[in-house]
Give the backbone structure.
Amino acid sequence: MRRSPSAIEGDIAAFRFTQAIRLRRQLDSLKDDQAPNCLDPYALNDLDQRMLRESLRQAQSLQDRLRLDYHL
């Protein structure tokens, strides 16, 4: 079954957001000598926390769809 164009747009937006958060964290890790891919979600502002949560839900939805489509 095909995903709707709006679902695909959501997948892309979620991917871009999570990558932006990841890259920002990696840059910050150079300054504070922390693990580059370790993110404390409570260190994010409220909006970024909500967007990250929704992005992870979107990723879960895509994984579920792939599991069904490819019998994984």
About this structure: The longest helix spans residues 5-32.
